[in-house]
Amino acid sequence: MIYEKINISEVNSNLKDSKAFINAYIPDNSEEIDIKKKRKTIIICPGGGYSMTSDREAEPVALRFISEGFNVIVLRYSVAPNKFPDALLELAATMNYVRKMSEIWNVDKDKIIVSGFSAGGHLAGSLGVLWDREFISETLKVNKMDIKPNAMILSYPVITSGEFSHRGSFDCLLGEDASEEEREKLSLEKLVSKDTPQTFLWHTFDDGTVPVQNSLKFATSLKENDVPFELHIYPTGVHGLSLCGETSARKDKVNHINPHVGTWFKLAVQWLENI
Q1: Is the entire prediction scored with pTM above 0.85?
Q2: b/e 203-233 (16+ beta carbons within 10 angstroms → b)
Q3: Are strands 151-155 and 107-117 parallel, antiparallel or unpaired?
Q4: Which of 60, 199, 226, 230 is the most exposed place for a label (fewest CB within 10 A)?
């Protein structure tokens, strides 16, 4: 397996001041199996309220996806005091870079998926709804189609800036003094279009940090725009469950062990079979 840590400033020279980086996990192909195999690639955006990026939603998730045969990239994006659009530009640059590395990393360029947790779900979803905006392609000097995700997996995502907002995420993303109008411009359910990628979403009904209405609102907008999606609402479970098992549980947090909710991963992999 290839493992590399790459600074975003090396991924795209137009982000030379970025301190963000990616961790790339690229399984080797085998003569015995298929030396020319092209793999689906997952780009993971860990959560952390745009104030940090969680270890629990990074390498443990990467290793599970690798075990299912995917290439995996974990993006450790810029957080507060950095503001929008820094993290979004870093994710877009990562998407473009993965496509550029298709021959070296055996990437299927038409099957690159962004996966985000909590605020990382907001970041992943932001690329899904904003990938065709001029300010991104012009800043990075890239082709718009090279930064479009082919699909998204959003896990208990921050979506709305309205009534059910996780205000802390928007405070870190835009600054505490940002106006409601500025926040509304990044309320993702209002930005969905027919060009938004197909999406897999999951949430828990009683999430006390990021209300379940975030996923419901996004799913409703996808339906209104005829964008295919799969949505799973589990009856109970705390926020930030990640893989819902010991490999990703916070120390001494027994409520992070939730085998029923943990079925989301198998369901997501099954859903990806048709991407």
Answers
A1: yes
A2: bbeebeebbbbbbbbbbebbeeeebebbbbe
A3: parallel
A4: 226
In this prediction, residue 252 carries a pLDDT of: 82
Measure the CA dihedral 58/59/61/66, to 10°: 140
Element (H, E) at 202: strand 198-204
Residue 152: which of 184, 182, 195 has the closest Cα? Answer: 195
Domain of residue 222: give its range.
2-272
What stretches in the chain show pLDDT beneath 70?
A: none
pLDDT value for 211: 98
- Domain count for the chain: 1
Q: Is 246 helix (H, G, I), strand (E, B) or coil?
A: coil
| pLDDT tens digits for range 51-104 | 999 999 999 999 999 999 999 999 999 999 999 999 999 999 999 999 999 999
Distance in angstroms (rounded) separating the CA atoms of residues 87 and 20? 8
pLDDT confidence of residue 82: 98
CATH, residue 247: 3.40.50.1820
